[in-house]
Design goal:
Length: 256
């Protein structure tokens, strides 16, 4: 088996060890290979926890991409092994791990979208101040403009009987991602005890003929309908009573 060159950059931390502090100047990013890392900020003397990272997650990338000081602090919340990436090895990391590359692009896209949203809200607020009555939206108008899936649509976990309602035309299934600070519409963290579900794993779609399941690009550990593994990006029809596998989590699809 070929040796992974990134293994030469593994650094180890004991539980509670600081990795870096907010405001530090850095030229490295990290990938969690084992253990867990906590990101936090100090706000008026109190620690604000941003999230815990686990195997496969990355952090500190803005120091490589933009040369900026750290905007968070990081510490090992349990004994951890991290791959430390500097500018010289960044290209190898991107080429060798497509999931990290995809998630990094998503994180940057989220930041751009958030900046655009702030600009749009600022412009809308200025228009509203001039003509508030012309821009007011009533609750009935909002309800008519928001399409939802049929009542009773849900996925039920086979092992725990937990039920997850699906109330959108597109429902993202996965786990909370502290790297991008985004939550999927249907978060399986609670029942994914073996961490087999990707952060963005699959989607349930409303189609002209009913419903379908499609695997997201970069998802690991497979997506299944009645035991048949899906090809990434290829929708598979869903019917009432079908068994759905999201990684190692097994669920049943119900339409009523």
């Amino acid at each position: 088996m070929a040796n992974n060159p990134l293994q030469n950059f593994v650094v180890k931390y004991s539980s509670g060890d600081p990795i870096y502090h907010e405001g530090d100047v850095g030229a490295t990013m990290y990938i969690v290979q084992a253990g867990r890392v906590r990101l936090y900020r100090e706000v008026e003397g109190s620690r604000s926890i941003l999230g815990d990272l686990e195997k496969g997650d990355f952090f500190g990338e803005m120091s490589i991409l933009e040369g900026l000081p750290r905007n968070t602090s990081a510490e090992a919340s349990e004994a951890a092994e991290l791959i430390e990436i500097n500018g010289n090895t960044f290209d190898k990391m991107i080429r060798g791990n497509i999931e990290i590359a995809i998630r990094m692009l998503r994180k940057l896209s989220i930041r751009l979208r958030e900046a655009e949203r702030c600009l749009s809200e600022s412009a809308a607020a200025q228009v509203a101040a001039v003509a508030e009555s012309a821009t007011r939206v009533t609750p009935s108008q909002t309800k008519r403009g928001a399409e939802t899936a049929s009542d009773g649509l849900r996925l039920v976990a086979i092992d725990s009987d937990l039920s997850y309602e699906i109330d959108q035309l597109e429902t993202l299934i996965g786990r909370y991602d502290p790297v991008t600070e985004q939550s999927p519409d249907l978060d399986l963290t609670e029942i994914d005890l073996k961490r087999s579900v990707s952060r963005r794993h699959a989607r349930v779609l409303k189609t002209d003929s009913g419903y379908a399941l499609v695997e997201e690009v970069g998802a690991l550990n497979g997506t299944f309908v009645n035991g048949t593994q899906l090809s990434t990006g290829q929708p598979a029809d869903l019917k009432d009573g079908d068994e759905v596998g999201i990684g190692m989590v097994k669920m049943t699809f119900h339409t009523s």
